[in-house]
Amino acid sequence: MSLTVQKRLWRSVGGTRTHPSIGLSRAALAALIAGFGAVALAGVSVPIEAQMVVYLVGMIALNLPHGGYEHFENLRRRRPSFRWRYVAAYLGGIAGFVGLFLIAPVAGLGLALVVAMAKGGIGGVRVLEATVGVPHLQTRPQRALAAAVRGGAVMLVPMVFHSDTFYAFSTLMVGLVDAGALTRGPTDTVRGVILAGYAAALVAHIALGYVRGGGRAWLVDAGESVLLAVYFAVVPVLVAVGLYFPFWYSARQVARTATVEAEPVGEDDWDLVGGDSVSAAALRAWALMAVGALATFTVVAALYVAFPNPFAGSSLLPGAVAFWSVAISIIALPHVVVGDLFDADRGIWYVP
């Protein structure tokens, strides 16, 4: 029996292969829930300046390198012709998103929110599939519901529970192009509809998973889905989003990669870091990472030049949060569309 068949059979019966980063990701979110929950109960408010610093450190210093790593691992053993098509499609996605934001910033903001939810949701389901299995997710619509629940927690839940902060920074994000484009935040009615809709989706996801399969995989999925919803409801939105990606998303993608790394994932003849010695391979890997970092910096610098008000007329910290939120969304759109949907057979969230 091949290794691929063994893994699929193992996952189909709800086997589990626990990587340390899975436990750490859950522990990190639980600790943040407990800490910020205690602070809220004590009536203490966390300074917004501190929240912004946490957001920027989490999103830039901790999480950004992982995005480059996902692309690197995906492309390292691919044919050069595919790599060039991939890069061209990626740059085209960035250009299209920038154009949308410059022409219709409110629509661009909406797409940015969808991107964040899609990345968290689709990536989360792929981690579940690789590490625990998904015997309880038996149809494509059910998988889409699972992704919507996990991804929706990232934006829809804080939109309800941290509405003022969410709206304030959404206004700044739109203000990079047009300061008056976003005139008002969600009303109480809209927030109620969002909360009811998300709660219904969460309950439906958990109940349907139980009916379709139950077992350990369903229990893990249900527990993590509830954990995410509570996390984004309790932890202030800037801290929650800033730490979610490095402490949850990236950490868990490491577990997925470690779980599937024994699978053949490309053609070794085309390996970007192949070499006659370990030192040569390490040098080539470093050079590629340096090139990737410079390319990312170039894209971010181009975005800074393209936006009429790159800091939305605000002071340094809030302006930087708004600018980076838009910039990382623009970079992440092709990360999701090109890195997964375009590359369906072997994408950034590969699971054999």
Explain how this protein is built:
The longest helix has 29 residues, at 278-306. It contains 12 helices and no strands. It starts with a helix and ends in a 10-residue tail after the last helix. The chain has one domain. Helices cover 77% and strands 0% of the residues. With 352 residues, the chain is mainly alpha-helical. The chain has helices spanning 3-12, 20-41, 48-75, 80-103, 105-131, 140-161, 163-175, 188-212, 215-234, 237-260, 278-306, 316-342. The model is unreliable at 1-16 (pLDDT under 50). Helix 3 crosses helix 11 (278-306).
Task: Compose a concise summary of this entry.
This protein is an all-alpha fold. It has helices at 3-12, 20-41, 48-75, 80-103, 105-131, 140-161, 163-175, 188-212, 215-234, 237-260, 278-306, 316-342.
